[in-house]
Specification:
Distance between the termini: 12 Å
Structural class: alpha+beta
Number of helices: 5
Number of strands: 8
Largest sheet: 8 strands, mixed
CATH architecture: 3-Layer(aba) Sandwich
Strand content: 35-45%
Order of helices and strands: EEHHEEEHEHEEH
CATH topology: Aminopeptidase
Radius of gyration: 15 Å
Bound molecules: coenzyme A
């Protein structure tokens, strides 16, 4: 199943990630993070049955999101937009889709971790209503040592499914 998001200039399809996408996904990952996941980590996420989505624009992978769910909670494990596509609302659209999916599949809470140094991601998550609920000390690899993770949480009961950028997804749910 797929859902269409609109950026400023082109339609982007939000669809399920498959193992055929892994070379392209890993390439975006490698250019986006200092300590990237390799293709094998994404493969394990698919095989574990996690919610694995890609943003596909005319066959090009321009972003992806990975989310695990269980025991009434969802956990966003990775959200990434290709560098040349950032600032066009793709990241917000992807996060909104994940929030819709998490709530629509019966989860009450959604969690994620973010580096204190990652201001774009922090602002994105906070703008969606996430609030910081803890710190994992030295959670991430960093140049010359470790970096903390700021643990954020959102009560999905406060999240309204069907924000404007998700009308396509909303239609899917009602059909
Ligand atoms: C974080 C990331 C996914 C955001 O994706 P994006 O498509 O550029 O974000 P959007 O255009 O949807 O912007 C959504 C919000 O994010 C914040 N944001 C995005 N880019 C920002 C920047 N350069 N500076 C400050 N805030 C920024 C803003 O709050 C923005 O809302 P606004 O447009 O109303 O101001 C993207 O920067 C990325 O892939 N980074 C590398 C991977 C990464 O760090 N992932 C998160 C790991 S925790």
């Amino acid at each position: 199943m797929s859902a269409a998001l609109e950026t400023q200039s082109a339609a982007i399809i939000n669809r399920r990630m498959t193992e055929d996408d892994l070379v392209d996904v890993a390439a975006v990952e490698a250019e986006s993070y200092m300590f990237p996941w390799n293709a094998g980590v994404f493969r394990e996420c698919i095989r574990a049955g996690y919610c694995c989505r890609v943003l596909d624009r005319d066959g090009e992978i321009v972003g992806y999101g990975i989310m695990a769910t269980g025991a009434g909670e969802a956990h966003v494990l990775n959200v990434c937009v290709r560098a040349d596509q950032r600032g066009l609302s793709a990241g917000r659209g992807l996060m909104e889709w994940l929030l819709d999916e998490a709530r629509g599949t019966g989860n009450s809470w959604i969690f994620l971790e973010v580096r204190p140094s990652n201001r774009p991601a922090l602002l994105l998550y906070q703008s969606l209503g996430f609030t910081q609920v803890g710190i994992r000390r030295g959670y991430y690899q960093a140049i010359g040592g470790r970096e903390d993770a700021l643990v954020h949480r959102l009560d999905l009961n406060d999240w309204l499914i069907g924000r404007p950028s998700h009308r396509a997804n909303d239609r899917r749910r009602k059909s």
